[in-house]
Design brief:
Hypothetical protein af1432; alpha+beta; single chain; 10-stranded antiparallel beta sheet; 7-stranded antiparallel beta sheet; 4 domains; about 950 residues; about 45% helix; 29 helices
Length: about 950
């Protein structure tokens, strides 16, 4: 949730923020402009550096070109011997002294002879040749094609000279493969002096270039080796900022000059005893920013602007020279924060000035904000009080702001209006009875509108007429009589039309005015009245009633100054009335549906008709007795209206699962009954046996048998068959218990056979054919009188099996088959008429009841309906059906329904499989069930002591069932 701040703080913060923002904008603008200037200056600096480097290169190479031109005409070019050539040593020395960038010079002849002159104090010279201490100059002399006095062919001689150019010493010469004619500078030499591209001199490990020129003598080339040290010095001199980088490179990023020249030359040990040196690339100089930019180098002049190491860098690459046809670039980079350091200082100075100004004005801002916010704070606290429904008086401080004064006035008016409205809502919200609600709406509206009387018409949706429902005046409530006639919707709309020049819906009533509202004059005892008629509209803007406010004549316009509020109130009243009507209708519809379902269940079976109606009667009677009792566990037992409704609904729906139970199972009166009673098939088989016996008798007589004896045997056979069938028919009816001896006799009778001569597959449905034995038998065939055949077994699908961990907590054993219609199997049922499979199906109605009821969306007040309705076959010892709940897991109301369900079933006279029990018989059976912990003993005692059993009997049982019960014999 966002933090809230007081208005005083908000206003102060606003002004302070404005000051800070203005100061920030000014400082930022100044910083931006200064930054632009400094960045522009940086560009000019880069341009100046590149010009300086270009001038340095020209100042170095320009004089050398002139010297080369002089040497082109020197007699040296035609000298043949060492003495002739060494006589020109002063010319070479003069060049070394005058041009500091030249560190070596030489001349090559077409026959391969070579003479080179350099300083001795160079590190590479001392390391390689070990010159004497007094030596200043080194002359390397090579005779290539033929020997000369003092010089052998193919040897390189090192000759040392002092400052006065006197020979100090020379070595004996060493064999050399050096041939100047194979060197690039010799082969690239032209008549015009020019230079090679920069490279690393192998011996000296110095970065430089070679300037050379052909002479007028064919094959003679003069050469000077020039270092780039002066460019490095220029680079070192121009350090724009502490972190700036300037480096001389080519287009491939190879470096030639850097402020730390040692990093330009890389040494690697390639082979033992030898060094392999090369020029470093940009990413090998040890500079992170140069490494970062190394892949962005282009073969043209360009600028840079990039981010590196969380810093912005700018830079430029400019061509400064083109030796050997290769462009050399001056790469210059600087971090922007260092370039703009001075601009940052200026910005912070401006911000500091703004802060000082702010500190000076803070007290003034704070005082002004407090002056403005104090009245608003009071109004805020008043609004907060209203939100808590606190409508007490507040003391407002005077304000010089017009809007604040107007807000205070509006707040007082709003507080009064809300207070009135809340009072009405509170008075209506808890009202459940429609008539009481109607009375309260009428009276409260009259009080709020300050009218002398109020009348409400409500729409009767059956005939679309508005009927006067309630009238009240300042002193009395009136029961509306026929004096106020009914209104059609058109007449109601006429009343709502203008009858006053100033306001809609106003009617003036007097003895000369005859209209629908005229009877009010007589009812209220007035001669003149003014009525204001307001519509009561539902959410669809349809008229569901009228609200008439009645005033004494002549005061109407003054009294109805708050008519807008009354109109809003009438809208609320209309919605409230409509909501209550809808709730009543929905409740009525719900109960009608419930009774419809229960009636459909009873109607499904004519033998259980009325069960779903009578069980809730007994349950509610027992619940009322428990509420009235002050003994035992019933002392604190009580039910409110919602709980009564919950219990009633549970009673009506306790057997709703029976809608899924096959009708023949519910109505099964005999053991062989399915869709029809199969005892008729068995009877026909006995008839066949009797006919067979008679035919057999006559055949034997025809063959000459003893007629008297055969008739006696026939009669005996008939009696035996009649007795057997009578026994089977008796077994079929079912009773309380079937002994084992009877089952043994059944099996003996079943073993008898009869002859079938017709194919029993003819005329069957495809489903029955699928269940039949596929092995056909030749006709005729002998069959047992009673049989359990394969086609009698109806398989149970996996979906119809109840898993142990089902979500409803059912603890039931599911039979293997859905139906077992075996004749012997069903006739052998020991108790009642239902087989194990059929009893599971009958009991399954409780499973279906719970599942169906649990799928319904209940309000909180009805959430126990599934538990109460679905527990009427549970027992107190946890052995009941279907969840095996113990007594503590069943609410008291559910235990009441257990007794109600059993008692109704015992006393019911519409069961096909048993006679109705008398009161004594039923109470005795219930007492046995109490002893077996099937029912609640304390509730059973209350059932007897309160006389519930007798009250029910007098209302629902036939007189012959009502016998005298001595309840003391059955009490616990």
């Amino acid at each position: 949730m966002r933090t809230k701040y007081p208005l005083q703080v908000a206003i102060s913060t606003l002004f302070i923020t404005i000051t800070i923002v203005l100061g920030g904008i000014l400082s930022w603008q100044s910083f931006s402009k200064t930054s632009d200037i400094m960045l522009s200056d940086a560009g000019e600096i880069y341009e100046r550096i590149s010009r300086e480097l270009a001038l340095d290169f020209k100042s170095t190479y320009g004089p050398i070109a002139g010297v080369l031109r002089q040497f082109r005409l020197s007699p040296l070019i035609r000298a043949q011997s060492f003495d002739e050539r060494i006589s020109h040593l002063p010319n070479f020395v003069a060049v070394l002294k005058s041009e500091s960038s030249v560190f070596a010079s030489g001349i090559a002849y077409p026959d391969g002879d070579y003479m080179g002159v350099s300083w001795v104090d160079a590190d590479y010279v001392r390391e390689k040749y070990s010159p004497p201490a007094e030596a200043v100059y080194l002359v390397l002399y090579l005779k290539k094609t033929e020997s000369e006095t003092g010089f052998d062919q193919g040897k390189m001689y090192a000759i040392y000279f002092d400052e006065q150019l006197k020979e100090v010493s020379r070595n004996d010469g060493v064999e050399s493969q050096f041939d100047p004619r194979l060197r690039p500078w010799y082969q690239q030499a032209t008549d015009n002096p020019h230079a090679t591209r920069p490279y690393l001199f192998y011996d000296s490990k110095i970065v430089g270039l070679t300037a050379m020129s052909k002479t007028t003598e064919p094959g003679v080339v003069v050469v000077f080796d020039i270092t780039l040290d002066n460019l490095r010095e220029t680079i070192s001199k121009y350090q724009v900022t502490p972190s700036s980088e300037v480096v001389l490179i080519n287009a491939e990023g190879q470096t030639f000059a850097y402020h730390d020249q040692d990093k330009v030359v890389l040494s690697n040990t390639a082979e033992a005893g030898s060094d392999n040196v090369q020029l470093a690339d940009l990413d090998q100089l040890g500079s992170g920013v140069l490494t970062h930019i190394s892949n962005s180098i282009q073969a043209k002049e360009h600028n840079f602007d990039f981010e590196y190491d969380k810093r912005r860098w700018i830079g430029s690459a400019r061509v400064v020279a083109n030796p050997g046809g290769v462009d050399l670039y001056a790469l210059m980079l600087s971090p922007v924060d260092e370039l703009l350091a001075e601009a940052m200082v200026i910005r912070w100075q401006l911000l500091l000035i703004a802060l000082v100004i702010l500190l000076i004005f803070i007290p003034v801002i704070w005082f002004t904000a407090k002056k403005i916010s104090t009245p608003l704070n009071i109004l805020s606290r008043e609004a907060e009080a209203i939100s808590r429904f606190d409508f007490g008086e507040t003391h407002m401080r005077p304000s010089f702001i017009k809007e604040v004064v107007e807000l205070d006035t509006a707040m007082e008016s709003m507080k009064s209006t809300i207070n009135k409205f809340i009072n009405l809502i509170n008075s209506l919200a808890g009202e459940q009875d429609l008539d009481a609600l109607l009375k309260r709406v009428t009276r409260e509206t009259m009080l709020i509108s300050k009218s002398d009387a109020a009348l409400i018409y409500l729409l009767d949706e059956q005939d679309d007429l508005l009927k006067a429902s309630f009238l009240c005046d300042s002193g009395h409530d009136h029961v509306v009589t026929d004096a106020l006639s009914e209104l059609t919707l058109d007449e109601a709309k006429d009343l709502l039309r203008d009858n006053d020049a100033h306001r809609s819906g106003i009617r003036h009533l007097d003895k000369d005015h005859h209209g629908k509202l005229s009877p009010l004059l007589e009812i209220l005892g007035r001669e003149k009245l003014t009525s204001i008629v307001l519509p009561l509209q539902n959410r669809n803007d349809e008229i569901i009633g009228l609200l008439c406010l009645v005033y004494q004549h002549g005061e109407s316009l003054q009294q109805v100054s708050n008519i807008e509020f009354v109109e809003a109130l009438s809208g609320f009243a209309a919605v409230t009335l409509e909501s209550r009507q809808l709730l009543n209708m929905q409740e009525a519809l719900l109960h009608a549906f419930i009774k419809l379902i229960a009636g459909a269940i009873d109607a499904k079976s004519p033998y259980t008709g009325g069960h779903c109606t009578r069980v809730p009667e007994i349950t509610l009677m027992l619940a009322k007795a428990a509420c009235d009792s002050d003994e035992g566990s019933f002392k604190k037992f009580d039910l409110d209206d919602k709980q009564w409704e919950e219990l009633s609904i549970a009673g009506w729906l306790h057997d709703c699962g029976k809608v899924t139970t096959p009708e023949y199972v519910v109505d099964k009166a005999t053991k062989l009954e399915t869709i029809y009673d199969r005892i008729h098939e068995v009877r026909m088989r006995f008839e066949v046996l009797k006919r067979d016996a008679e035919i057999d008798c006559w055949q034997q007589i025809a063959e000459g048998g003893d007629k008297v004896l055969l008739f006696e045997q026939l009669e005996k056979k008939r009696r035996e068959l009649d007795d057997d069938f009578a026994f089977i028919a008796e077994c079929n009816v079912g009773g309380e218990f079937m002994a084992d001896e009877k089952i043994e006799r059944l099996q003996a009778i079943a073993a008898k056979t009869w002859k079938r001569t017709l194919d029993d597959n003819l005329g069957l449905s495809w489903e029955e054919l699928n269940r039949k034995d596929s092995n056909s038998h030749a006709l005729p065939v002998e069959e047992c009188l009673l049989a359990d055949k394969a086609e009698h077994l109806i398989a149970r699908s996996e979906a119809d099996r109840m898993s142990k961990d089902n979500q409803w907590g059912f603890k039931v054993d599911t039979p293997e088959y859905k139906y077992n219609r075996g004749e012997l199997y069903n006739l052998s049922v020991k108790k009642g008429t239902l087989s194990e499979e059929e009893r599971y199906m009958i009991n399954g109605h409780m499973i279906q009841t719970i599942m169906m009821l649990n799928n319904l969306p209940y309000p909180k007040s009805l959430r126990n309906v599934p538990l109460i309705a679905g527990s009427h076959h549970e027992t107190m010892d946890g052995k009941g059906y279907p969840r095996k709940l113990v007594m503590s897991e069943q609410p008291l109301t559910a235990r009441m329904m257990v007794i109600a369900d059993i008692f109704e079933a015992l006393t019911a006279s519409d069961r096909p499989y048993k006679k109705a029990k008398t009161l004594n018989e039923s109470i005795r059976i219930l007492s046995f069930m109490r002893d077996d912990k099937h029912i609640d003993a304390e509730l059973f005692d209350l059932f007897l002591s309160s006389g519930v059993y007798l009250d029910y009997a007098e209302k629902f049982l036939s007189p012959e069932q009502i016998d005298e019960v001595k309840i003391s014999d059955y009490m616990s």
